[in-house]
Write a structure and sequence with these properties.
Layout: H1 3-21, H2 40-45, H3 59-69
């Protein structure tokens, strides 16, 4: 099986399992609101784990990621 097909199949099965056990599908499902988004990038940029990220990001890019995850 080609690698891209295998990746899609695994992703589908992981999503099915996550649905079965009740893993939320977005930030809104755990109570995050759009009004929370402006402060989240500042918290993200202050997180020590960000130092291992292979890419740098701006506040605006991080805001966009949070909004997409809602």
């Amino acid at each position: 099986m080609p690698g891209d097909e295998a990746v899609d199949m695994v992703a589908t099965e992981v999503r099915k399992l996550a649905d079965e056990v009740g893993v939320p599908t977005g930030l809104a499902a755990i109570g995050v609101r759009d009004s929370d988004v402006p402060r989240l990038p500042r918290l993200t940029l202050g997180d020590a784990c960000l130092t291992t990220n292979p890419r740098t990001a701006t506040v605006e890019q991080i805001e966009d990621l949070f909004r997409e995850a809602l």
